[in-house]
Amino acid sequence: MFVDTHCHLTMLNLDPYAGSLDAALAEARQCGVSKFMGISVDLDDHIALSEIAARHADVGYSVGVHPCEDVEVMQRATVEYLIELAQAEKAWALGETGLDYFHSTDFISEQKACFARHIQASKIVKKPVVVHTRSAKDDTIDIIRAEKSTHGILHCFTEDWETAKAVLDCGYYISFSGIISFKNAQDLRDVAKQVPLDRVLIETDSPYLAPMPYRGKPNEPKYVPYVAKALSDVYDKTLEEIAFITTQNFENLLKQK
Q: Distance between CA 124 and CA 81 in Å, rounded?
């Protein structure tokens, strides 16, 4: 059974399911997905995600603010408010937070401060932080180290081995998305080979980044087995072995204190 550790359940294209998220999740379960973590990008996403999680025993969610959100939203994410939101039982993590200089370098200081607050809150509630980084790997590593963060996920990993090793040394897990299956992603697969199997997670990042053979189409949680298949080729393991390992890794992450 597979875990989709990063899916944007409030953003999925539900046209194939007549608008029903419940039907989309049921389809994913038929494909072997046994657990889903719905990810917040806006501070208020927890409202809809908590309602989804209340209906589905196998769904949890994160609380937090994406670094591409408005500064005003990031400023609302105080340590105290993040702690309050993260108290919920089905709130499994904080984020997605982090740094994104690809889309904008206008508010770098605000991104950094917001990222640090997420880490500070995660340490207090003893839940992992979900980290996004794009065109900002050095500053991302610097903040993780400065805040002594040891409990987190570097999600949708696309960086080099130096970056992977840095966060692994801090205690982080590395999550791979459908990008690992792309034909032009051999460099990423070469990096993945060096990541210890007990630190690997899988995700869809749906509705984005659908894996092969669905690249370019709307992504959804039922496609996470294709990410696992790409990793099974990288590690020369069976699909069942990758499913077991990555599921156990996610359970270990959630139990970590």
A: 12
Tens of pLDDT, residues 198-223 = 999 999 999 999 999 999 999 999 99
For strands 129-134 and 59-63, give the pairing.
unpaired
- DSSP, collapsed to helix, strand or coil, labels residue 68 as coil
Residue matched to tokens 């903040």: 143
HSE-up of residue 89 (Cα within 13 Å, Cβ side): 4
Inter-residue contact 116 to 84 (CB < 8 Å): no
Give the CA diameter of the chain: 47
Bridge partners of 176, per DSSP, are 202
Q: Which two tokens stand for residue 42?
A: 């806006």
Each residue's pLDDT tens digit, 63-81: 999 999 999 999 999 999 9
Task: Say if residues 127 and 93 touch (Cβ distance below 8 Å).
Answer: yes
Cβ-Cβ contacts under 8 Å for 184 (sequence gap 6 or more):
none
Single-letter amino acid code for the residue at 174: I
